Amino acid sequence: MVRFRGVAALALAVVSILGFFTPAKASTLPTQLVETGTAHGLIIQYRAGVSPIAADGQAAAANAAKVALVAGHGLGEQLFTADFTKDLPIAKAKDIASRVRQDPRVLSVGINRIFKAASMSAANTPALRALTPASAVQTLKAVDAFNSSAPNVASVKLTWKAPAKLYGAKVTGYIVEYSANLGKSYTQIKLGTALSYTFTKDLEAGTPYKFRVKAITKLSTASKAGLPSSVVGVTPTTAPQAPLLTTGSTVSTTNTPAWVQQSIAQQGGLAVTYTVSAALNGQTVGTCTTISNACIPSNLTAGVTYVVDLVATNKRGSVHGITEIRPADEYYSSQWYLFSEFGINLPKAWQVTRGNRAIVVAVLDSGITKHPDLDGQIVAGYDFVSN
């Protein structure tokens, strides 16, 4: 097995394999590779254990590069390609490479240069064509894929056509990239060869998403991500989530029903109207409708207490409101960390479950003292302090 160090050696190896380089007669090359003066990206060798893809979907060294780097493919020996969003002059690519070398996670950096053949015969050789990425994916479309059988799941369907130019290679898959921050950064998903994909998770109603798709082509043992498609956008929608009544399940002339103001996501990404109904002995007495978060039904009689019902409606569906759970704790409202703006949003969790005594949890801490909330709730376990 012959191994090559560095990108220049790798390029030399490719030329040698193609038969373009003969050590004994360098002057008799059947064709000549000429550098165009542009670079498609970098080839980065990371230290052992370093992931080539950062949390935002870009190459891990993008922060050091100070430009967007799209994570590409592994070449072995911890070598990975990292593409620019567009081809850059060699001089600029060298500046970026010098910055990336300062990243402590990086062992070495080379430039993924673009070559052209001086003759048509060389350009038509299969191995050289493999270095050319496929043209852009065609006619990408994105639509809101709302499904009435899952009314609270934000969903988007993408469809596209294969690239027009594959340069002799075969499509082996596609990369779908999506962005929730207006295209500032993208997250990648690698797919098979199907020409459509439906997102059914990781999306939030009311958020405008951007999408683009690339083809992955392969010729012999070489794989390459193609040029990105045009960017398309769509905002998924859902039925509204249940609004949370803060004034309890009853209403009177002295008690105006009110609920927590819903976010765009909780409204399903659509305009929502709220209808409050007051009932006595099972019969509706009065109603009111609003787009705000409070209203009092009509036709109420002073001194009478009615059962209240709240319904939120958008064009995707309707849902009944729920009553806020209030523990028997006089300091409950002062415990800011229990609520959604800065805390764990415990009231919403209580809408799903209020706990199960069969479930045992462990806390790693320095110990506890007697407390009415804990007395009788402690099970035998390991004391990490005294033991």
Structure explained in plain terms:
There is one protein chain. The protein has 387 residues and is mostly beta strands. The chain is 11% helix and 34% strand. The chain has 6 helices and 19 strands. Strands 7, 8, 10, 11 and 12 form a 5-stranded antiparallel sheet that branches. Strands 14, 15, 16, 17 and 18 form a 5-stranded antiparallel sheet that branches. A 4-stranded antiparallel sheet has the order 2-3-1-4.
What is the fold's blueprint, element by element?
Layout: H1 6-18, E1 33-46, H2 62-65, E2 69-76, E3 79-89, H3 90-100, E4 106-117, H4 120-123, H5 126-129, E5 138-144, E6 156-161, E7 170-179, E8 187-191, E9 196-199, E10 209-219, E11 222-225, E12 232-234, E13 244-245, E14 250-251, E15 273-280, E16 283-290, E17 306-314, E18 317-320, E19 322-323, H6 346-352
Parallel strand pairs: 13-19
Antiparallel strand pairs: 1-3, 1-4, 2-3, 5-6, 6-9, 7-8, 7-10, 10-11, 10-12, 14-17, 15-16, 15-17, 17-18
Describe, in short, the structure shown.
The chain has 387 residues and is mainly beta. Helix content is 11%, strand content 34%. Strands 7, 8, 10, 11 and 12 form a 5-stranded antiparallel β-sheet that branches. Strands 14, 15, 16, 17 and 18 form a 5-stranded antiparallel β-sheet that branches.
